[in-house]
């Protein structure tokens, strides 16, 4: 006689079903939250447009915003977001983005507090859209977005000196160049005047999550002082990563002084050794990044001129070297790591509270 089906099937098929449903439910919840957020942002834009149009065409003064705030809060007492201050942000929001289509495909995908940060900190439409897209792609929280703006990520992106155009295929050259910054912002580190390269390395490893965030999306950490054996002799790489978007190994060499031509020869050897000992079929050419305290553009260009492997040279700044105003605006390493954990979650469940 066949056995009746179990009421609670404890087998791998059941758990596969359960896990699949969990993923679908979470995905649906996130999409629903994003849809609600987008509708709210577009509502705010339309309110701002109405205020702008009436003030331009009918000569209404600023007092109308205070009256609107009072009447809207009276009509919708349980709905936040209609304060005088927030209505003024809505007007500024509409003035900053006159194209409704642009709003829908970019900033409307971000929570309202993100948009207030973009409005408050940036005057350029191009830069607002650039930071908005980065925040969308990387799931930045509002505080991480503000920190990236304060640290001038836009100006630092792609600022390194490289030989990528000559040593990488065209489809990889631009993306590889864009992943480099100059300078790198190691605001989570404080190093003494007598600090050595190993002190810099230990500091970065001690704040590996903050370090990875500064490097950017796609870097997977493989190890420090990574051993490479060539002709029975062991060599050690300061930091070794694999970039999951570029599909290549990335070697980072740390220097506590100004760039010297010999650094490029050493890095060229490391990159070649990784290509021969670690690179597998399907991996793109290994890339080397030399991080120095300072560099001469001409010296770096001459040093990389005849190098056969892709190498980039950037500088870095630690907290004590940053301008005081910027130091005060940056979060601590602990805050940065907490924000990193919350970043993706906030994109889905951050409610656009009244500022």
Keyphrases for this structure?
single chain, 355 residues, alpha/beta, seven-stranded mixed beta sheet, 16 helices, 14% strand, disordered C terminus
Describe this structure in words.
This protein is of the alpha/beta class. The chain has 16 helices and 7 strands. The chain has helices at 12-57, 63-75, 84-96, 100-105, 112-121, 125-138, 142-150, 153-156, 164-167, 170-179, 197-206, 208-215, 261-277, 297-304, 324-329, 333-349, and strands at residues 161-162, 184-186, 219-230, 233-243, 248-254, 287-292, 311-318. Strands 1, 2, 3, 4, 5, 6 and 7 form a 7-stranded mixed sheet that branches.
Stretches where pLDDT falls below 50 for ≥5 residues?
326-340, 342-355
Give the CA-CA distance, first to last residue: 68 Å
Our count of helices gives 16
Q: Characterize the largest beta sheet: strand count, sense, and whether it forms a barrel.
A: 7 strands, mixed
């Amino acid at each position: 006689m066949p056995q009746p089906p179990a009421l609670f099937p404890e087998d791998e098929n059941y758990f596969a079903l359960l896990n699949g449903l969990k993923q679908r439910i979470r995905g649906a919840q996130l999409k629903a939250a994003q849809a609600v957020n987008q509708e709210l942002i577009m509502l705010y834009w339309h309110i701002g447009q109405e205020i702008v149009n009436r003030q331009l065409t009918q000569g209404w003064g600023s007092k109308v915003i205070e009256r609107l705030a009072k009447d809207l809060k009276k009509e919708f007492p349980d709905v936040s977001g209609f304060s005088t201050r927030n209505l003024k942000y809505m007007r500024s929001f509409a003035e900053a983005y006159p194209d409704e289509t642009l709003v829908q495909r970019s900033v409307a995908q971000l929570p309202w507090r993100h948009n207030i940060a973009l409005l408050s900190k940036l005057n350029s439409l191009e830069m607002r859209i650039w930071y908005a897209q980065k925040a969308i792609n990387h799931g930045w929280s509002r505080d991480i977005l503000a920190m990236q703006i304060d640290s001038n990520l836009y100006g630092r992106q792609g600022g390194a000196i490289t030989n990528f155009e000559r040593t990488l295929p065209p489809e990889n050259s631009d993306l590889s160049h864009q992943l480099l910054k100059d300078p790198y912002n190691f605001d989570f580190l404080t190093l003494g005047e007598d600090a050595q390269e190993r002190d810099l390395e230990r500091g970065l490893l001690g704040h590996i999550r903050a370090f990875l965030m500064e490097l950017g999306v796609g870097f997977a950490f493989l190890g420090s002082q990574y051993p490479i054996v060539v002709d029975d002799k062991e060599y050690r790489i300061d930091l070794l990563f694999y970039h999951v978007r570029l599909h290549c190994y990335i070697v980072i060499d740390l220097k506590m002084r100004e760039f010297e031509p010999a650094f490029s020869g050493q890095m060229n050897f490391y990159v070649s050794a990784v290509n021969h000992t670690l690179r597998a079929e399907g991996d793109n050419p290994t890339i080397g990044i030399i991080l120095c305290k300072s560099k001469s553009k001409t010296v770096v260009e001459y040093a990389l001129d005849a190098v056969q492997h892709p190498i980039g040279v950037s500088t870095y700044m630690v907290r004590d070297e940053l301008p005081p105003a910027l130091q005060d605006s940056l979060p601590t390493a602990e805050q940065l790591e907490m924000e990193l954990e919350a970043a993706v979650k906030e994109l889905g469940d951050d409610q656009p509270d009244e500022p």
